[in-house]
Amino acid sequence: MVSKQRRLPRQVREQQVIDAAVQVFSRVGYHTASVEEIAEAAGISKPMVYIYLGSKEGLFTACIHREADRLVEAVRSALRSDATPEQRLWEGLRAFFRFVAGHRESWKVLYQQARSQGEPFSKEVAQARCRVMDEITALVVSGTELPDGGRIISTEDAELLARIAAGAADALTDWLLEHPRETPEDLTMRVMEIARIGAHRYYRPGAAGPGIVRPRTGS
User: Which of 127, 158, 165, 212 could cross-link with 141 by S-S, CB 3.0 to 4.6 Å?
Assistant: First the structure.
């Protein structure tokens, strides 16, 4: 006798389906994964998957969106309003690496697999990457402010430095997955050092070197 499945709100059930899809996609890849396998992992029928997400393509897109949301939220929630700019940069990057270390399936779907699929997912992945990049850029721009209101480097240089730091962070995630003994804290320190070297390349105390923006004074 088949037991009746407990009815759950649609939003809750959709999240369960996406949870199952992330696990299946990360394990066997997009092309090999079947809707039947995802439905079985989610504990629902195959037709219900189509009702909730529309198609296998729609399901994979939903995974990209949800995991990007979770990554951005992990970075934002780690930031303390009373922290110094440099502390906020540290906390944000550490949260980024902790998410990757703690959600390996999510990362495989969001970056390693989705970016290799081409159309129609390349646009979705690009948008997800931009959201993460914007978060890191905001942290670097804030982290290069001086206590007196000036800046170690200009906002434009800070944005360029953020691209370098984010690129290093992106590359180091593969290192993190390949080296389980490497900690998020170790990788955060490495990226922070890259940011420091880049900042000090422009900043010389007491000298108006290239890129330095002095605080405005009253006229």
Answer: 158
